[in-house]
Design brief:
The protein has 18 helices and no strands. The protein is mainly alpha-helical and 468 residues long. Helix 8 packs antiparallel against helix 9.
Length: 468
């Protein structure tokens, strides 16, 4: 018994030592795989903290405003986030592809050019979208529920800062400055929204959706302007001042399919909330959003891995290292799936408690959480497949995949929400995510010769890709 206990103790010490050595390598080794690990871990840590902050802020906002006003705020803010992100026209992701390549090539003038272009495209497009939105409200406002009109007008004025913030996020991620990329949006902005809302209520303003959207406006402008100033200083220090060169036609050709991909993706992941608002009452929007927000705690595992591996994918394509690319792609799928499954089980176990924080009327969202979790697992099976396709220049096929998934999502929402309510919206979203994952797996396999899933055998995939 003593000898057995001693062997078990040594085995435990060896296991801990191996784990600590692996962690030390990730945190200190200069090789590119360890850098990707560090970026993913940083992004994951920020998303963990950010998810906690976002959850707390949403709970407090729901408690302050009540279910009806909170539902109005959620409906408008989600639309603003979608349109603001679309306003980048794909450049906030395209810069992640181009900038590492230009750094590898020493093309500093191109770096300056695409950094400036990304910001200007975001601001210009967001302004035009905002003007179009105001025009639509002026002409067709009588067809919209009256309680949405003023909040929608306020949401329009947030678009330029949301778009510019996404552009700055992409620029920072392309430089592997993960803390600066994600902190403004996921840490600072929700805190400032909450502070501004509390301040407004203390000063005697009504705790309505209009007040919350004014608070969101203040937070969006403050965080984005601060990020712009800090990022400008860091870019100047790294690349120095000098002439900028532009390849506008080429950049737009590459960015346009990415714009379609990002647009379809955002609509897939957020159109359910908007369509619930179109068919049902603000209280239902609030309940559905609360359930989806809780399940987002699981979904950000994929986001964190994508943030860390996209620059690495880009470099491997520049180096034409197909063997390492296949191995790294298969590994990234495992980085996504197993943490997502574990975290999802924990979140579902705590689901009733977490929903109760929003208020007594939110318990109906619990079945929705199970349906959304099934969709997340489908997507996690192949990991960041869309990132691999985008960095490989296969934007068009990726856009077609998302278009197919979006069509299923929208059709499913139209058909199922009137029949099943918020469960119908969740079912449509889950079906779209399952189709998306299947099509992405097929696209990566056929276009790149890589078997990107948790069940793949990297060496065989690499050999196959090289044979092709």
């Amino acid at each position: 018994m003593v000898e057995g206990a001693g062997l078990a103790d040594r085995s435990l010490r060896q296991t801990i030592a191996v784990a600590l050595d692996g962690l030390r390598q990730i945190l200190t080794d200069p090789d590119e795989q360890s850098q990707a690990h560090r970026m993913s871990l940083t992004a994951f840590a920020i998303r963990v903290v950010g998810a906690g902050i976002a959850f707390l802020s949403q709970v407090l906002l729901a408690r302050i405003m009540g279910q009806f006003e909170y539902g109005i705020f959620v409906f408008v803010w989600v639309i603003a986030i979608i349109v603001g992100s679309l306003s980048c026209m794909g450049f906030h992701t395209a810069i992640i592809r181009f900038l590492p390549q230009y750094i590898e090539q020493g093309a500093t003038s191109h770096i300056r050019g695409i950094a400036l272009t990304t910001r200007l495209v975001a601001l210009t497009s967001a302004t035009l979208f905002g003007a179009a939105g105001l025009g639509f409200l002026y002409l067709f406002g009588d067809t919209i529920a009256s309680y949405y009109i003023v909040p929608l007008v306020l949401g329009v004025f947030a678009l330029p800062m949301i778009a510019l913030g996404d552009a700055l996020d992409g620029t920072a991620r392309a430089n592997s400055w993960m803390l600066q990329a994600l902190s403004p949006t996921y840490l600072l902005r929700p805190v400032l929204i909450l502070i501004a809302m509390f301040t407004a209520v203390i000063l005697g303003f009504a705790s309505t959706a209009q007040t919350a959207l004014v608070a969101a406006l203040i937070a969006a402008y403050a965080t984005t302007i601060a990020q712009l100033l800090v990022l400008g200083v860091r870019l100047e220090r790294r690349f120095k001042r000098g002439p900028a060169s532009y390849r506008l036609g080429y950049w737009f050709i590459i960015a346009l399919p990415i714009f379609l991909i990002e647009g379809f993706y955002f609509l897939i992941t957020n159109s359910d909330v908007v369509m619930v608002g179109m068919f049902l009452e603000p209280e239902d929007v609030a309940t559905y959003f609360a359930a989806a927000k809780i399940m987002a705690l699981v979904h950000f595992v994929l986001f964190a891995v994508k943030a860390g591996i996209m620059p690495r994918f880009s470099v491997l394509f520049v180096q034409n290292n197909r063997t390492e690319l296949a191995r790294f792609a298969a590994m990234s799928a495992r980085w996504v799936f197993w943490p997502s499954m574990l975290l999802g089980i924990i979140v579902l176990a705590l689901g009733p408690l977490l929903l109760s924080f929003f208020g007594s009327g939110f318990a109906a969202g619990y079945p929705v959480m199970f349906i959304l979790f099934a969709g997340i697992l489908f997507k996690a099976l192949i990991g960041p497949g869309e990132s691999l396709l985008t960095m490989a220049g296969e934007q068009k096929i990726c856009a077609l995949v998302y278009l197919a998934a979006l069509c299923v999502n929208v059709a499913g929402n139209f058909a199922l929400i009137p029949l099943l309510g918020i469960k119908g919206a969740a079912t449509a979203t889950m079906a779209a995510m399952a189709l998306e994952s299947l099509l992405l797996f097929v696209a990566v396999r056929t276009r790149l010769g890589i078997n990107m899933s948790i069940f793949s055998r990297p060496k065989a995939s690499a050999d196959n890709s090289e044979a092709n």
